[in-house]
């Protein structure tokens, strides 16, 4: 039996989550000299260490990696760090300021406390806090369609977070379902290893790695795309549904062109719809999904062309993309599992949030998603950090976490200062209060 080590302790601030978002919040809390505690269910940067495949690399260039006071510190700013390099860089950030982090603590429930603040119940005892920052992302439960339960027992099923490498899977063909960043990169990993891959193609958009002499990310950064507030891009519902563009940083970075994979032998299908008598049924939307992905890529290139022309930038011309493969009119929409010998299905259709343990209705919309303004909720003293599109396009990347965390902590510190000098003196934060 685990011995509790919390016995009703109270902190001005508790941060839930010890990833890059939670420790970025801790960095700014330390700068404000605000007493706090960070609680992490596993260990710091758990997802990076334990939920990425072996060949994983960033899809954004290293120069976009910025944590508070800790920009990318390597010698390849235009490259793409692989998993071990990412973890080492993040661990150097942690070591630089030694956050008050307790690992191996599961937060089981957060509830409002009578008189203000919150009660935080954990598997190691209960605590309370005046303010709580939720830095737990939204990628909690892998999405798996109902038909997964009807698949034969001999098939191995796993989601993207459990995939490691081709050799760790049973021999035989693999069905990858979903073409977001994870699905496309896992399909590529298997394809490069010589495995027979069947890929269910969804509506995710794509983007080129390089265009007119530069990484597309560099062009978009110059154009200010990563700093445009979310409300100027999308509605609230669109934010929740938006898929990331697929591309890769592997081997120095390149496009992911599913048509090229098909030309090389990968079997492409439309979106997975159902299972019927040992056959998987796919939609008739493969051509549409491929065309729409290419159209998004073309629009991004057109915006770069306009930027280059507007600023009279000397950049090499590039011919328009031409599809190298097209599905035939009678392209298969059924896959016989026995006939193809598929042994593994990898679900890469995203993750659903689960905030049911946070018993604070005012902080959520009707769907159970955090309702906030730049991380500040309607429930006094409750904040969220590390959400996709929390403020800008860059919020879903390491690129903007320092800025997002600083905003949340500045708001929190202003609230604490506004509570009066008596509170400030007793919590050693008078240096941050302004007359």
TrEMBL record:
Gene3D superfamilies: FAD/NAD(P)-binding domain
Keywords: Monooxygenase, Oxidoreductase
Oxidoreductase as UniProt keyword: yes
Protein name: FAD-binding monooxygenase protein
Source organism of the structure: Alloalcanivorax venustensis ISO4
Alphabetized NCBIfam families for the sequence: MSMEG_0569_nitr (TIGR04046)
GO molecular function term, any single one: monooxygenase activity
Xref: InterPro entries: Auxin_biosynth/cation_transpt (IPR050982), CHP04046_FMN-dependent (IPR024000), FAD/NAD-bd_sf (IPR036188)
């Amino acid at each position: 039996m685990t011995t509790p080590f919390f016995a009703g302790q109270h902190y001005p601030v508790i941060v839930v989550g010890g990833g890059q978002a939670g420790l970025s919040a801790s960095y700014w809390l330390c700068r404000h000299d605000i007493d706090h505690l960070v609680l992490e269910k596993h260990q710091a940067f758990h997802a990076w260490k334990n939920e990425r495949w072996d060949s994983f690399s960033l899809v954004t260039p290293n120069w976009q990696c910025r944590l508070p006071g800790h920009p990318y510190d390597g010698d390849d700013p235009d490259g793409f760090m692989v998993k071990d390099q990412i973890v080492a860089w993040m661990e150097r950030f942690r070591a630089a300021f030694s956050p008050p982090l307790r690992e191996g603590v599961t937060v089981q429930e957060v509830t409002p406390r009578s008189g203000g603040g919150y009660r935080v119940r954990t598997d190691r005892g209960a605590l309370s806090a005046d303010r709580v920052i939720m830095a737990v992302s939204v990628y909690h439960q892998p999405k798996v369609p109902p038909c997964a339960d009807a698949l034969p027992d001999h098939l191995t099923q796993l989601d993207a977070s459990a995939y490691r490498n081709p050799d760790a899977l049973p021999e035989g063909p693999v069905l990858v379902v979903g073409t977001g960043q994870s699905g496309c990169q896992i399909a590529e990993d298997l394809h490069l290893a010589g495995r027979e891959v069947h890929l269910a193609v969804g509506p995710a958009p794509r983007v080129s790695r390089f265009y007119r002499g530069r990484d597309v990310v560099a062009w978009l950064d110059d154009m200010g795309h990563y700093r445009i507030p979310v409300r100027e891009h999308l509605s609230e519902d669109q934010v929740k549904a938006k898929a990331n563009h697929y591309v890769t940083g592997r081997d120095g970075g390149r496009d992911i062109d599913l048509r090229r994979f098909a030309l090389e032998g990968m079997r492409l299908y439309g979106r997975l719809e159902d299972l019927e008598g040992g056959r998987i049924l796919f939609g008739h939307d493969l051509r549409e999904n491929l065309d729409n992905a290419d159209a998004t890529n073309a629009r991004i290139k057109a915006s770069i062309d306009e930027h280059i022309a507007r600023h009279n930038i000397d950049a090499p011309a590039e011919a328009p993309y031409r599809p190298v493969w097209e599905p035939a009119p009678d392209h298969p929409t059924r896959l016989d599992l026995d006939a193809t010998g598929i042994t593994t299905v990898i679900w890469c259709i995203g993750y659903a949030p689960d905030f049911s343990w946070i018993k604070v209705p005012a902080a959520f919309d009707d769907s159970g998603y955090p309702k906030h303004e730049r991380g500040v909720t309607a429930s006094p003293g409750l904040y969220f950090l590390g959400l996709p599109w929390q403020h800008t396009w860059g919020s879903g990347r390491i690129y903007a976490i320092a800025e997002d965390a600083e905003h949340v902590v500045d708001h929190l510190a202003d609230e604490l200062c506004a509570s009066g000098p008596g509170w400030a003196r007793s919590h050693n934060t008078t240096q941050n209060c302004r007359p």
